[in-house]
Amino acid sequence: MQNKKGDLLKKIQEKIGACLIKASINLDHPEILIKRENMLDVFKILKADSELDFNMLLDVTAIDWLDKKEKRFTVVYHLLSLTHKHRLRVKIDLDENNPEVDSLCSLWKSANFLERETWDMYGIKFKGHPDLRRILMYDEFKGYPLRKDYPVQKKQPRVPLRRPERENTARLMHRPELGGLVQINKRINKA
Predict the structure, then answer these.
(1) In terms of DSSP bridges, do strands 182-185 and 169-172 run parallel, antiparallel, or are they unpaired?
(2) What are the residue ranges spanned by the domains of the chain?
């Protein structure tokens, strides 16, 4: 098994060459560290090359290395090839002053919500993202709660309770014969 993962890393090194900073097997997963400047080219190769064929983006997250000011953040991508049944972890180091990478939404649709969550929690910007806005926290929330320097006792601004829109709302039917199907309710304003 280790040899198969080593062969995968050799193939990747051949394909992306100068864009690669480091390749290793960490906790039984092949992983690579790449340069931010070339990331889109690297991900295009990882997805399009028939020997690699990483056709699924499983996760995007970040690590905050508070003690490292020069390379404070690491963005981590988890890829899967359903064709070849192999996985890859891709990392990109970012400076504290410019925590920004290119968006992968053009390659994988799953990147949309994953990148929004990473931005919402860590403040890492995804350049070219079609809709980079908060996804877990409310719009008025100040700061990024998963950063290690975020004050745990910080008070957030109070916001008025917002009622969900009544038009085109979905509700879960709690009847066993419906199997938990979602029913769409459309209300028509009677004027």
Answers:
(1) antiparallel
(2) 2-161
Taking the C-alpha atoms of residue 118 and residue 146, their distance in angstroms, rounded to an integer, is 9
Residue 171: predicted pLDDT: 53
Domain spanning 2-161: which CATH class is it, in words?
alpha beta
* Residues 23-57: tens digit of each pLDDT: 999 888 899 999 999 999 999 999 999 999 999 99
What's this model's pTM, rounded to 2 decimal places?
0.81
Burial class (CB in 10 A: 0-12, 13-18, 19+), 139: exposed
Residue 18 has which token pair? 């100068």
The residues of the chain scoring below 50 in pLDDT are 168, 181-182, 184-191
* Segment 146-153 long-range contacts (CB within 8 Å, at least 24 positions apart): 146/62, 146/64, 146/121, 146/122, 147/64, 147/66, 147/122, 147/123, 148/64, 148/66, 149/66
Give, in order, the Cα–Cα distances in Å from 52 to each of 79, 106, 153: 11, 19, 46
Q: Are 20 and 36 in contact (CB under 8 A)?
A: no
Q: How many CB atoms lie within 10 A of CB 108?
A: 19
CB atoms closer than 10 angstroms to residue 129: 18
What's the chain's average pLDDT?
86
